C-alpha cells in the first residue's frame, strides 16, 4: 500500500465517503461528502465504486507529495491545481508519479474540491464508513493535518488513460442558486404565513455556517421556538427561536426540537454546500416526484457515461 504525504491541508481537509448510515439511533451523525454531485463524479471518472472515499478540501490551499504513482481525479471548486508547477484541469483524472507535488490554490468560486484516487483513500473505517465528523472524533478519525499520510492501493486500473468529464456535466458555482424545497406536511410551530414569506424572500449564507448546518440571514419567521424532538435528515429546514432558518447538512445532530419548514433535496444540498458565507440563495417549492426524477436522472448519467480506451468520452450529450 502506498499513498500521499500531506504537506499542507489548507483551511480544512477531511476524508469523506457516502456516510455512516444506520447509527443515528445511537446518536452518531452520518457525515459523508457534502457535495454529492462532485463526489460521485470524482469516483466515476476513476471507475471506483460510488462510495469509495475521497478527500474533501475546503477553500483549497492543499499541497501533498505522491509516495508512488497514483491516478487521481479532481472535481468540484476549481482551485487552479498544479503538479510540479504545471497546471492541470479540473473535472478530470491525471497521473501523479512518485515524488510529484500537487498544489491547490484558492478557488475563485465554490467552496469544496474533491480529490479521488483509484480504489479510494484507505483510511481507517468505523461503523462501515471512513467519513470524518470532526466534532465527534470517533475512532481517531479527524481532519487531515500537515504530515498526515493518506494510504491508497495500487489496483490495475490505475493504468487507465486520463479522462475528462464533458463540460455539460460539470458544475460552476458563481451564480446565486435557487434551491428546491419540499414543504413540510405539517409545519407545526410556525405562523401560517411563514411558508409564503420564506419562499418569496432572498437570504444570505450566515458566517456561522458549516458542515453541521447552513444558517440563513434575512427576513425572520415567526417560530415559537420549540416542538417535540424528532428525527432530522440532510436538508431539513429548522426555524429556531430567533426566526432565522437553518438548513441541516451532513454533520447534523440526529434529532431536532425546532419547527420544520421543509426539506431541501440532496442534489440541491450539494449546490448549497458550494456556497460561501455572504452568498445569496433563494428557494422554490418542489414536489417529491420531481426531486426523485432529478435524482434518478443523475444516477442514469453516472451509469451511462463511459470512456473508450484512449480516455475519450462516448457520451457527449
TrEMBL record:
- Superkingdom as given in the UniProt entry: Bacteria
Q: Where do the Carboxyltransferase domain residues begin and end?
A: 25-301
Q: Fetch the SMART domains from UniProt.
A: AHS2 (SM00797)
Keywords from the UniProt entry: ATP-binding, Hydrolase, Nucleotide-binding
Spell out the molecular function terms from Gene Ontology. Answer: ATP binding; hydrolase activity
InterPro entries xrefs: CT_A_B, Cyclophilin-like_dom_sf, PxpC
Protein name in UniProt: Biotin-dependent carboxylase uncharacterized domain-containing protein
**Which species does the entry assign this protein to?**
Marinobacter daqiaonensis
Amino acid at each position: 500500500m502506498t499513498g500521499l504525504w500531506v504537506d499542507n491541508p489548507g483551511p480544512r481537509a477531511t476524508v469523506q465517503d457516502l456516510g455512516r448510515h444506520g447509527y443515528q439511533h445511537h446518536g452518531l451523525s452520518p457525515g459523508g461528502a457534502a457535495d454529492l454531485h462532485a463526489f460521485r463524479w470524482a469516483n466515476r471518472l476513476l471507475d471506483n465504486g460510488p462510495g469509495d472515499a475521497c478527500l474533501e478540501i475546503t477553500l483549497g490551499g492543499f499541497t501533498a507529495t505522491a509516495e508512488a504513482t497514483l491516478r487521481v481525479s479532481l472535481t468540484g471548486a476549481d482551485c487552479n491545481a498544479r503538479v510540479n508547477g504545471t497546471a492541470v484541469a479540473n473535472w478530470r483524472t491525471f497521473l501523479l508519479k512518485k515524488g510529484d507535488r500537487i498544489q491547490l490554490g484558492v478557488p475563485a468560486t465554490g467552496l469544496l474540491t474533491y480529490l479521488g484516487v483509484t480504489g479510494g483513500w484507505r483510511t481507517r473505517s468505523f461503523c462501515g464508513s471512513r467519513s470524518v465528523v470532526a466534532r465527534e472524533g470517533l475512532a481517531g478519525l479527524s481532519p487531515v493535518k500537515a504530515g498526515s499520510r493518506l494510504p491508497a492501493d495500487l489496483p490495475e486500473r490505475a493504468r487507465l488513460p486520463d479522462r475528462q468529464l464533458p463540460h455539460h456535466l460539470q458544475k460552476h458555482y458563481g451564480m446565486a442558486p435557487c434551491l428546491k424545497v419540499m414543504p413540510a406536511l405539517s409545519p407545526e410551530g410556525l405562523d401560517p404565513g411563514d411558508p409564503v414569506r420564506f419562499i418569496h424572500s432572498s437570504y444570505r449564507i450566515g458566517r456561522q455556517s458549516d458542515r453541521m448546518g447552513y444558517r440563513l440571514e434575512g427576513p425572520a419567521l415567526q417560530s415559537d421556538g420549540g416542538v417535540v424532538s424528532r428525527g432530522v435528515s440532510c436538508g431539513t429546514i429548522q426555524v429556531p427561536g430567533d426566526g432565522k432558518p437553518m438548513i441541516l447538512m451532513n454533520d447534523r445532530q440526529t434529532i431536532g426540537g425546532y419547527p420544520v419548514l421543509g426539506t431541501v433535496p440532496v442534489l440541491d444540498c450539494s449546490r448549497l454546500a458550494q456556497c460561501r458565507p455572504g452568498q445569496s440563495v433563494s428557494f422554490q417549492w418542489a414536489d417529491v416526484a420531481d426531486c426523485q426524477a432529478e435524482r434518478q436522472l443523475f444516477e442514469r448519467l453516472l451509469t451511462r457515461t463511459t470512456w473508450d480506451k484512449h480516455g475519450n468520452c462516448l457520451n457527449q450529450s
